[in-house]
Structures are given as structure tokens and as C-alpha cells.
Design brief:
The complex is a heterotrimer.
Chain A lengths: L4 E10 L2 E11 L4 E5 L6 H8 L7 E6 L2 E2 L4 H7 E4 L11 H11 L4 H14 L15 H12 L6 E5 L7 H15 L3 E5 L3 H7 L2 E6 L2 E7 L6 H15 L1
Parallel strand pairs in A: 3-8, 3-9, 6-7, 7-8
Antiparallel strand pairs in A: 1-2, 1-4, 4-5, 9-10
Helix pairs in contact in A: 7-8
Chain B lengths: L1 H26 L18 H28 L2 H32 L8 H22 L3 H32 L6 H7 L6 H42 L1
Helix pairs in contact in B: 1-7, 2-3, 2-5, 2-7, 3-4, 3-7, 4-5
Chain C lengths: L1 H17 L1 H20 L7 H32 L3 H7 L4 H30 L7 H26 L5 H28 L8 H26 L2
The chains are: A alpha/beta, B mainly alpha, C mainly alpha.
């Protein structure tokens, strides 16, 4: 069984400024990986490249054995992306949003009914499904946004700070959901919440100035405190 | 070495332009129409007008080709070529309009008529002025290169279509000036001296364009390098 | 193809629900007609003058109302980064383009269906050959939306998009505006479809060329 995500010599430059430099990374199927790093380390850029939204300057990325540039459409089908943007249409209802994106992922009407029902239940939104998104609270929008990205039951889940705007209960729900799905799905999560993320992940990658400065197995570390120490020494040493 | 070549090119261009000026103003015989009467010397502007027009078309073709290459290869150098050619092309296109109007005033008595070739030149000029406007409006260099390339391609394709539509438009109305008008001026170039003058002028303007183009793109490359240095120092 | 229809349907549903853009387009084109009618009130009784002015007036109203709509085609997608969300889906960018072009075309049709009767009332004018003029308007509007949608995506990330888009769009529209205005004029002068075949062909060629070109190039406008 090969790696589901394999990145070789990935570089990304923005107008002469280096955002990512020579990233080499293999992620196995079913792994739960968190990506840490300060602002501007290239975390979001890295996720966006995997999401096929940004074209890498050089290097190769393979997802599910497919070249990123050549089979972007197939790769997008495998990926569910959650970001700090909600990707929701404010003037459509909860149900219409999910239905529209489901259609975009090529789901049939029957599949859609089942998926929408399930996700609304999991996200505790079933009683609001006829309301327009503009009337929802911030946390509800975030939950709906998560439901949106899981509508096609993706094999890979890419998350950019998913905890923003979630209350404690929703955050726990999200975790439970992720743990359930991460038995089969591969998860990459960018976050600043070390405590929360440490408990659920298998592997920790720390990005610094566009390069991977450490790549640690969760089982090699005893506690979140130790991880925090590692994190601070990297950046104090660098500064 | 590179610099030396460029200096030679600049020198050759200057010589060619001076030669072409001399030929137009001092060595051309007096033009006579078919009936034998002496034609207005305003016709001499044609020797500038046509070479400039063709050079402008050439410049815009470079914009188009460089835009296609830019989208394919994402290489900054194509963007530099595209913007250099566009800026010089706009100036040449403006000169086409000005020289054409001056001639039209002297010959027809109007600076402007809605005639196919004039209108097409105007459309062409406007398309590339807006191309430069678009470039100005986008700050991020990468998306500027990409979006400007898209517009460079679409704009270039629109030009022949403009020409056809405008020709259709004019043919639907009574022609103010028959084809004969073109025949007696544009088409009536006979005598080796006249043709030679035209060729020299053509070469002069092409050389002028190339010199400006190379200087301009070299300058843009330097600008690009400065930008990179500035970013990496931060 | 089916996905472009979903995108168009989604846009139209949103628009018909909020009517933000549609209302401005409608009111704008009616106001334009009123102003024309006011400023030309002296010659309104002379139908031969109106014959010659009408095609220009109608198309000016269509184009300006269309400009209002077309600047919003992609602006509406920037809220919550929906466009990025759409690009995450396994949808060909050409399908996104087609959907957007269809929805903006539909909005313009609605405006045109209202504007033409208003024009007929205000100018006391009778349009002779409604089916044929509809074909002209249909093809001309298609040309407008096809190019407008591409440029709308092109300018959506610029700060001055509301000003920039009309400026960029008009020179490119010359090849579709001239034959459209000409054909409209001929029909108003009482000529039939046979006399405007050349114009129609030219507009159709324009529509097809730019539609194909825009589908090819659209992907590049979305990146980044």
C-alpha cells in the first residue's frame, strides 16, 4: 500500500518571495496529521496546493497515485476541504447549499437525501435546514461549512484551522466525527490549538519559513507539553 | 558584448530613420496623378503611416504570442515581452491614428470619418490602451501576468472581427469615398524610387520598434531583478 | 454541461430571491428610456427620426443595464470565497464559465423583455417584426454575456472592477454591437430576415469564437 499523498521537491514562489521550499513528504492512507507553524510559514499555501487551488512553482505532487496537474478533477473528488472561509452562499438555505455542492460533486438525488440527512444530524443543524445561511450564527455556519466539505464522503480531509468559531461542544463533535471518519479517511489539519490536536493525531509536522523543520510521530511524544516545548525551542532557536 | 550589439542596433536604427527622412523629404520626385496634375505633398505622410501601421500590428502580434507563451510556461520573461510590446505598440497605434487623420484632413477635408480601416485602427488602439489599464489595476505580479495574458489573447482575436463588422457596416451605407480613392493613393505606387523609399521607411520603423522593444524589455528585466532583491532582503 | 445548468439555476434562484441586481438593472434601463424620451420629446412625433435613433437607443439601454449585471456575476461569488469553494469541486472551470454566462444572459433577457415594451410606449413606436428582432437581441445579448462573463472574472480581484470592466468590455464589443445595431435598424425599417442574414451570421460567428476562446482561457482567470 503506497502513500496516498506523496510530495517531492515542492517549491512555491510568490513574486520572488519563497513560500514553500523543497518540501518532501509522504502521508499514508488513514493517517491523521497536524501541521503546526507560525503565521506565514506556508501552511495554508501547502494545503491550497493539495486542494489544486494553487499551482506549484516546481516539484511533483501525487494524490492517490495521480499527478496533481494532470488529474485535478479526479483528485478534487477525493478531497474535502475546510477553511476559515465558509464557502457558503448566504442567500441560499442550508439545504440548498448542501444540495448544490452535492450536485457539483456529482451525487445523485438519492445519495444526496441520505448524506444531507446524516450530516445535518451530526452537525446539529437539522432544525435549521430551511433557513437561509445569512440568518445562521457564526458557529452554525462553521458547522455547515464542515458538513459541506464532507458531503461527498471524501477520502482525504484537508482542514485549515477548523476550530475557529466553534464552541466547546461543536469542537468536540467535530473531533468525534473526524475520529470516526479518520479510521478510513486521511486527515491533514492546520491548527494552532496544540492541546486539542495532540490528542487525536498520529503525526505532527512543523513548518517553518516554508520548509519542514520537524516531522514527529505522536507516539514518540509523551504529552502535549513536550510537543509545546519542541515547538518553542524550534522557533526560539530560529529567532 | 550584449551591450555592444545593442549600441550597434541603436546606431543602425538612427541611420535608417535619418535616411528614410531624407528620402521622403528630399529625394522623392513630385507625385502626379493619372491625369498628370501635381498631387499634394501631404501624400508623403503615407511613407510614415503605412510602415508604422504594420509595425503596430507586428507589436500586437508579439503581445498575443507572448501571452500564449506566458499562459503555457508561467515564465516571467514572456510577460515582460508582452508588456514591452504592448506599450510601444500603443504609441505606434496612436501615431497611425494621428498620421492618418492629418492625411485625411489634407485630402478629404475631415480629420475623422467612420471608414473601416480607420475605425479598426481605433478599435485596435482602444483594446491595447485598456490592456495597459488592466495591467495597472492588478497589483500581484503573478496574477497580473496571467490575467493580462488572457486579455491580450481575447483582444487580439477581436481585431479581425472588428474589421469585418465595420466593413459590413460601411458597405451598407453609400460610400462617401469609392474604392477609387484608395486606388489613386494607396495602390498607385509606381516607380522604383517610390517603392524603395517605402521599403527603407519600413525597415527604419521596424528597426526603431526592435530597438525600443529590446531597451524596454531589458529595463523591465532589471526592474524585475530589483523587485526580487527587495523582496528577498525583507 | 448539466453542472453548468446547476450553477446557472443556483445563480438565478439567488437572484430571484434577493432581486438585488435584477431590480437595479430593470429600473436603470427604464430610467434610461425615460431620459431618452424626455430629451428627444421634440422629435417624438416624427417617426422617421425615431426609426433612425431607435436601434442605438435600445442597444445603449441593453448594454448599460447589462454592465450593471455583469459586474456582479463574480462579485457575488467572492462573498465567503464561494468561487474558491466552487473550484474545490470536481467541476471543469469551463462549466463554471458556461453556467455564469447562462445566468447573466437570462438576467439580461428579463431586462430586455421589460425594456422593449417601455420603449414602445414612451416613443409611441411600433416594432414591426417581433420574432426576427428577438433573434437579433438574443444573439447580440449572447455575445455580450460571453465576453462580459470572461472579463468579469478577469477583473473580479481588482480594486476598481466596477470602473474597469465597462472600459475593458466596450472595445471588445465593437464587433457585436455594430451588426446588432445595424440589424435592429433594418428590421425597424421594415426589412425581413433575409436582409439581415449577413449581420446575424457575423454576430453568430463572434458568439461562437468568443465562447470557445473564453472556455479555453477561463481556467487562467480563476487561479490564485
Amino acid at each position: 500500500m503506497g502513500s496516498i499523498i506523496s510530495v517531492k521537491g515542492l517549491n512555491k514562489k510568490f513574486a520572488g518571495h519563497v513560500a514553500l521550499h523543497d518540501i518532501n513528504l509522504n502521508i499514508e492512507q488513514g493517517e491523521f496529521v497536524i501541521i503546526l507553524g507560525p503565521n506565514g510559514a506556508g501552511k495554508t499555501t501547502f494545503l491550497k496546493i493539495l486542494e489544486t487551488l494553487i499551482r506549484p512553482s516546481s516539484g511533483s505532487v501525487e494524490i492517490g497515485g495521480m499527478e496533481l496537474n494532470r488529474s485535478a478533477l479526479q483528485i478534487r473528488k477525493m478531497i474535502g476541504a475546510i477553511s476559515h472561509e465558509s464557502y457558503l452562499y448566504s442567500d441560499l438555505t442550508v439545504e440548498e447549499n448542501l444540495r448544490f455542492f452535492g450536485k457539483m460533486y456529482g451525487l445523485s438525488d438519492d445519495e444526496l437525501i441520505v448524506r444531507i440527512q446524516l450530516l445535518l444530524e451530526q452537525m446539529h443543524l437539522e432544525y435549521r435546514y430551511l433557513d437561509r445561511v445569512s440568518t445562521l450564527s457564526r458557529g452554525m455556519k462553521q458547522r455547515l461549512s464542515i458538513a459541506r466539505s464532507l458531503i461527498h464522503d471524501p477520502e482525504i480531509i484537508l482542514m485549515d484551522e477548523p476550530y475557529t468559531g466553534l464552541d466547546l461542544q461543536s469542537a468536540c463533535n467535530l473531533e468525534r466525527l473526524l475520529l470516526e471518519s479518520s479510521k478510513k479517511a486521511t486527515v491533514l489539519m492546520v491548527t494552532h490549538d496544540i492541546d486539542r490536536a495532540f490528542c487525536i493525531c498520529d503525526r505532527i509536522i512543523i513548518l517553518c519559513d516554508g520548509t519542514i523543520s520537524s516531522d514527529i510521530r505522536q507516539k514518540d511524544i509523551s504529552s502535549a507539553e513536550e510537543l509545546k516545548n519542541i515547538y518553542t525551542t524550534i522557533f526560539d532557536g530560529g529567532a | 558584448m550584449e551591450n555592444k550589439k545593442l549600441k550597434i542596433l541603436a546606431f543602425v536604427t538612427t541611420a535608417l530613420v535619418l535616411l528614410s527622412m531624407y528620402m521622403v523629404f528630399f529625394s522623392l520626385p513630385v507625385m502626379r496623378s493619372g491625369a498628370g496634375e501635381v498631387l499634394d505633398s501631404s501624400f508623403k505622410i503615407f511613407y510614415f503611416h503605412m510602415p508604422i501601421a504594420i509595425t503596430a500590428y507586428f507589436a500586437f502580434f508579439i503581445v498575443f504570442a507572448a501571452s500564449v507563451m506566458q499562459l503555457k510556461s508561467h515564465d516571467v520573461k514572456w510577460d515582460i515581452y508582452a508588456r514591452s510590446a504592448a506599450e510601444i505598440g500603443v504609441i505606434f497605434a496612436l501615431l497611425v491614428l494621428i498620421t492618418g487623420s492629418i492625411w485625411a484632413m489634407a485630402t478629404w477635408g475631415w480629420y475623422w470619418i467612420w471608414e473601416p480601416r480607420l475605425t479598426t485602427s481605433l478599435a485596435l488602439f482602444l483594446v491595447y490602451v485598456t490592456y495597459l489599464l488592466l495591467r495597472q489595476a492588478i497589483e500581484d505580479p503573478e496574477s497580473r501576468a496571467r490575467l493580462a495574458s488572457v486579455f491580450g489573447i481575447v483582444g487580439f482575436v477581436s481585431v479581425p472581427l472588428s474589421f469585418f463588422s465595420i466593413r459590413l457596416w460601411r458597405s451598407a451605407h453609400p460610400l462617401m469615398f469609392g474604392e477609387a480613392m484608395y486606388g489613386s493613393t494607396g495602390g498607385g505606387l509606381e516607380g522604383s524610387n517610390l517603392q524603395f523609399t517605402l521599403v527603407v521607411n519600413f525597415l527604419a520603423f521596424l528597426a526603431l520598434f526592435l530597438t525600443l522593444f529590446i531597451y524596454k524589455s531589458n529595463m523591465e528585466i532589471l526592474k524585475e531583478e530589483i523587485h526580487v532583491l527587495r523582496v528577498s532582503r525583507r | 454541461m448539466i453542472r453548468s445548468l446547476y450553477i446557472a439555476a443556483k445563480d438565478l434562484r439567488t437572484e430571484l430571491r434577493t432581486k438585488q441586481v435584477l431590480n437595479s438593472m430593470l429600473v436603470f434601463s427604464i430610467v434610461v428610456m425615460v431620459i431618452f424620451s424626455l430629451s428627444l420629446s421634440d422629435v417624438l412625433s416624427d417617426s422617421s427620426v425615431i426609426d433612425r435613433l431607435a436601434p442605438g437607443l435600445l442597444w445603449i439601454a441593453f448594454i448599460f443595464a447589462g454592465m450593471l449585471g455583469i459586474t456582479r456575476t463574480f462579485a457575488s461569488e467572492t462573498e465567503n470565497s464561494c468561487l474558491e469553494g466552487l473550484r474545490l469541486c470536481p467541476v471543469d472551470s469551463a462549466a463554471i464559465y458556461t453556467g455564469k454566462a447562462i445566468s447573466s444572459m437570462c438576467l439580461m433577457f428579463i431586462v430586455e423583455i421589460v425594456t422593449v415594451p417601455v420603449f414602445m410606449v414612451l416613443f409611441n413606436y411600433n416594432i414591426p417584426n417581433i420574432p426576427v428582432i428577438s433573434i437579433v437581441i438574443l444573439l447580440g445579448t449572447a455575445g455580450f454575456s460571453v465576453v462580459g462573463t470572461l472579463l468579469s472574472a478577469l477583473t473580479v480581484k481588482t480594486r476598481t472592477r466596477e470602473i474597469l470592466l465597462p472600459v475593458l468590455l466596450l472595445p471588445l464589443l465593437v464587433p457585436v454591437l455594430i451588426p446588432a445595431v445595424m440589424a435592429t435598424g433594418k428590421i425597424l425599417a421594415g426589412e425581413g430576415i433575409v436582409q439581415i442574414i449577413m449581420e446575424l451570421r457575423l454576430i453568430a460567428v463572434y458568439d461562437i469564437i468568443f465562447f470557445t476562446l473564453a472556455r479555453m482561457l477561463f481556467d487562467y482567470t480563476l487561479e490564485g
